[in-house]
Design a protein that fits this description.
Layout: H1 2-82, H2 96-99, E1 102-105, E2 114-121, E3 131-132, E4 136-137, E5 142-143, H3 144-149, H4 157-162, H5 170-180, H6 193-196, H7 224-228, E6 266-267, E7 271-273, E8 283-284, H8 290-300, H9 303-315, H10 321-325, H11 339-358, E9 363-364, E10 367-368, E11 387-392, E12 395-400, H12 407-420, E13 421-422, E14 428-430, E15 433-434, H13 440-444, H14 451-459, H15 471-476, H16 482-485, H17 491-497, E16 501-502, E17 507-516, E18 523-530, E19 537-543, H18 553-557
Parallel strand pairs: 5-6, 8-13, 15-16
Antiparallel strand pairs: 1-2, 2-3, 2-17, 4-17, 7-14, 9-10, 11-12, 17-18, 18-19
Helix pairs in contact: 8-9
């Protein structure tokens, strides 16, 4: 009976064991499925991560490429500045062929193609989004370093020149000049170290030239709003957020006009190189030895031209009625000479005394030059349309200028004169204002500039009748003589203005953007290119990408968004 029961029990428990084995098999399958799912999820996650990493790498790579494209734009601009003497029709103002949407990284797919553009605003147009493709000439601005270092004829002249700048006060102007000048003597309304030492975090006045306009924030009472204005993204055009009051930053007056801040009125970089395009020296018409001057001029220009210039230096011009009505000739004689002119006077006096003592006279073309150059030529416009009375072979003679003051003659003659001649031996001429790119307020501060002429200059700057920048106009204005040629002023007034004006300096500001054909990262870089060095030097560079692209892709590509 026991055996029978045991056997019965064995078969009685057998189904449970089968079920248990089935359960174990099912559990194994479940574990396998879970493992497979987890491995699949891991593979999927890894795949997604790799895709993200690949996209991030691609974005990073495209960002690096866009930066290199922008830097290539700066390098190309510097090379173009260095090629001025070798390119016919050289034009840095508006040159789309050279600076707009240049495909530096061609690809079959537009999205992958890399481009750069060098962009600048049209300063005469503060109400629209018009742009040009070219460089910004730093000589269009007022050079604070030169203004502070110049010997002004009367105290306060430098302050007066700054008072036309928007939001400028007499106190701030004096404080700026005190910050830059070499002494610790406080100007009227100014501030020197004795003021800055009383601040919570004291410091000394620099008493030296500014290296950057950003330093102005250290000067008493100057705020970032004064320096940077409403143009928060530094693109030079009026964007919607810069014309909506206090709705969005920056806070602005919503007047429909862009306040660019003092960054667009001041500079510390402007200057012109005083050599010929081929790198050789110009002839200084104010050199001490008139015999040497005559000999050089005769070779370069001819005997009549040489005779007129040395006669002018020895005798000065005949004062015409127009000269008297405009305030007289600018030729300098007697008191009020610059240091260089005073040394010339001394040298001429000694030479004259020596020749008289020995009974020797020095002549060229029958003109006695032993008296030296008593008169100084302040600008080459002194020679245009003027006349001189002198003695030739003992006979009193009136010489008419070989260079006539009519538009056709000036158009032909002035570029040649400016290429060959100069009024100073200095290697550089600093601080003159480039009339074609100067703002109205900068022009108004120029001595002897009247308001009507300043407005006429701004309204005649290098834009066509449709308001677009004009390459043709910029190429035609090789000298400041266009002000007379186009009837904006007279030769008499031009003689007074000329020492303060130029037709284009040699230091440029460039904004270059690197981007791709359809979408992707955009890099915006700003640089200062100093063309007074050979080859030109990039003396300052800054990445502005954190301020935004500044310009739309269709604008850079020349696509009309209304089409």
């Amino acid at each position: 009976m026991q055996h029978s029961n045991s056997h019965h029990d064995h078969w009685q428990h057998f189904p449970d064991r089968k079920i248990l084995e089935n359960l174990r098999a099912g559990s194994t399958l479940l574990v396998v499925l879970v493992v497979v799912v987890m491995l699949s999820l891991g593979a999927y996650t890894f795949s997604e991560l790799m895709i993200v990493e690949m996209e991030a790498t691609n974005v990073y790579g495209r960002s690096v490429q866009s930066r290199e494209l922008a830097l290539s734009g700066i390098e190309l601009a510097a090379a173009y500045v260095g090629d001025r003497s070798e390119i016919d029709g050289w034009n840095s103002y508006h040159n789309p062929e050279q600076f707009q949407n240049i495909n530096l990284l061609p690809k079959e797919v537009s999205r992958a193609s890399g481009y750069f553009s060098v962009v600048a605003p049209i300063i005469a147009d503060s109400q629209t989004n018009a742009v040009r493709f070219g460089l910004m000439n730093e000589s269009g601005k007022l050079n604070l370093n030169i203004l502070a270092s110049e010997e002004e004829e009367e105290e306060g002249d430098a302050v007066d020149r700054m008072m036309y700048i928007p939001n400028m006060t007499e106190d701030i102007a004096a404080a700026i000049l005190d910050w830059i000048d070499e002494d610790d003597e406080t100007r009227t309304y100014g501030a020197e170290s004795d003021y800055y030492e009383t601040l919570e975090s004291p410091y000394f006045a620099k008493n030296g030239p500014l290296e950057s306009l950003h330093e102005l924030l250290l000067v008493r009472d100057i705020t970032p709003e004064m320096l940077y204005g409403e143009d928060t993204n530094r693109n030079g055009i009026l964007d919607p957020n810069e014309n909506d009051g206090d709705a969005t930053l920056p806070l602005d007056n919503a007047d429909g006009l862009l306040n660019p801040g003092w960054f667009d009125y001041f500079t510390v970089h402007s200057r012109e190189i005083n050599i010929r395009p081929d790198g050789s020296e110009k002839i200084n018409v104010n050199m001490t030895m008139l015999t040497e001057l005559y000999d050089m001029l005769e070779v370069e220009l001819g005997p009549d031209e040489a005779k007129f210039i040395v006669a002018y230096r020895a005798n000065g011009p005949v004062e015409t009625l127009a000269d008297l009505e405009s305030g007289g000739s600018l030729s300098t004689v007697g008191s009020g000479l610059s240091e260089e002119q005073a040394l010339n006077e001394l040298a001429n006096g000694l030479a004259k005394a020596l020749f008289s003592e020995e009974g020797v006279t020095v002549t060229r073309a029958g003109i006695d030059l032993s008296g030296g150059g008593i008169f100084t030529i302040n600008s080459l416009f002194d020679l245009i349309g003027s006349e001189v009375e002198t003695e030739i072979d003992g006979q009193k003679t009136t010489l008419q200028s070989p260079w006539l003051a009519d538009p056709a003659a000036m158009t032909a003659d002035l570029p040649i004169l400016h290429e060959i001649l100069t009024t100073t031996k200095n290697q550089y001429i600093e601080g003159r204002i480039h009339v074609d790119e100067a703002r109205l307020e900068t022009l108004l501060g120029i001595p002897d500039m009247d308001e009507d002429l300043a407005y006429a200059i701004v309204n005649s700057q290098m834009t066509g009748t449709n308001g677009a920048p004009s390459s043709e106009i910029s190429q035609a204005r090789q000298t400041t003589g266009w002000l007379v040629i186009e009837g904006l002023t007279t030769i008499e007034q031009m003689r007074k203005l000329a020492p303060y004006l130029c037709s284009g300096g040699d230091v440029f500001r460039a904004q270059a953007l690197g981007y791709f054909g359809k979408s992707g990262p955009v890099t915006r870089v700003e640089a200062i290119i100093d063309g007074t060095f050979i080859p030109p030097r990039i003396t300052y560079i800054r990445d502005l990408s954190n301020l935004g692209a500044g310009y739309s892709l269709p604008t850079l590509q020349g696509i009309n968004q209304d089409d």
